[in-house]
Write a structure and sequence with these properties.
CATH class of the largest domain: Alpha Beta
Number of helices: 12
Strand order of the largest sheet: 3-4-2-1-5-12-11-6-7-10-8-9
Distance between the termini: 31 Å
Number of strands: 12
């Protein structure tokens, strides 16, 4: 067991969802121990229950601090920052209780990572309604990460082997997107995206395709002027900073071109524009990555799937991919410190 592997904190997610099951299945494969030193932030009884319904063997040890020594495959240390009666949590039934718990797991894990006591962070799926019921800001992990770490800007990237997509806007009604796009904001998103692809993924000069907002990227203004007025100036400013960014490109072709290898990654203007093609290619193994943080962070690219929680059928593919990716990022960050 290699004590030099990155110490990877993994939050349980909402206790009522499939987070405990996908995590238990992932840990039982042994892969998380091969790429890092996993430690879970969550309720040990809930994790044991997840292992039980999945029919996997997992030894759960509780501790107050991240372990200094690696644990063997099949064994995991769990840090529990919340006093909660697990008998009050039913499969598939989120509540203010489960919202408070998952928010506390998340906050505790971020604090550990910020203070250098974790090398990397993976987050399990949350139920935003449960956060709201618990009085927690419910815009999601990415926005909370920015606030808890105090960084100026973060970028959400969804990634698979064939396609990597960054989002210029995230969880906003579609009708609001045109008003949210500005040249300075988009320029900074493109620049941060390119820089972080180098920092964590080793791209020396990533080739970025930037999608337009409107059909056919506006068709020379016939279908909208955001491309000429907002997006093209942002791309030109990013290019002046040294980035290889191209666009605005028609949204119906840029993702195909990236998947075929013409671009290393794509900047999408809004949530579904980027996530529909990403999930078409990587439904079971996509990873959500937050760029711009002082530590690497990934998440599963799926929700709590309350309809199948407790059935033991949850697919651990995205959780395994998230752990592999964050371990790679942590190793990359060690070998090439940020300048």
């Amino acid at each position: 067991m290699d004590r030099h592997k990155p110490l990877v904190g993994i939050t349980l997610g909402d206790p009522a969802g499939i987070g405990p099951e996908v995590l238990a299945r992932a840990l039982a494969t042994g892969e998380p121990h091969r790429v890092g030193r996993p430690v879970v932030i969550g309720d040990p009884a809930i994790l044991r229950r997840g292992a039980s319904v999945c029919g996997v063997e997992l030894t759960v040890r509780t501790a107050a601090e991240p372990p200094s020594e690696p644990t063997p495959p099949g064994t995991v240390v769990v840090l529990d920052p919340v006093e909660m009666d697990p008998d009050q949590v039913a499969f598939g039934q989120w509540s203010a209780l489960t919202g408070r718990a998952s928010a506390a797991y998340f906050a505790a894990a971020v604090d550990l990572a910020r203070n250098g006591r974790l090398d990397a962070l993976v987050t399990g799926p949350i139920q935003k309604e449960a956060w709201a019921a618990a009085g927690v800001e419910a815009t999601g992990h990415t926005t909370r990460l920015q606030k808890l770490t105090g960084v100026d800007r973060v970028v959400m990237m969804l990634a698979g082997d064939r396609l990597k997509v960054a989002l210029a806007t995230i969880h906003h009604p579609l009708k609001d997107v045109p008003g949210l796009l500005t040249t300075p904001e988009l320029r900074d998103t493109i620049i941060l995206f390119g820089r972080e692809l180098g920092r964590w993924f080793g791209y020396l000069r990533p080739r970025l395709g930037v999608a337009g907002l409107n059909p056919h990227a506006g068709e020379a203004g016939l279908f909208g002027d955001e491309e000429a007025r907002i997006i093209a100036p942002a791309i030109e400013a990013a290019r002046r900073s040294g980035l290889d960014a191209v666009g605005p490109l028609p949204p119906d072709t840029v993702f195909f071109r990236a998947a075929a290898g013409e671009f290393d990654a794509v900047v999408a203007m809004y949530h579904d524009q980027g996530l529909i093609p990403l999930k078409l290619l990587h439904f079971h193994d996509a990873v959500n990555v937050t760029l711009g943080l002082p530590f690497p962070r990934t998440s599963v690219d799926h929700g709590t799937a309350l309809d199948i929680a407790g059935a033991g059928r949850a697919d651990p593919g995205s959780m395994l991919a998230a752990i592999r990716t964050v371990a790679f990022m942590a190793e990359r960050g060690r070998s090439r410190p940020e300048e």
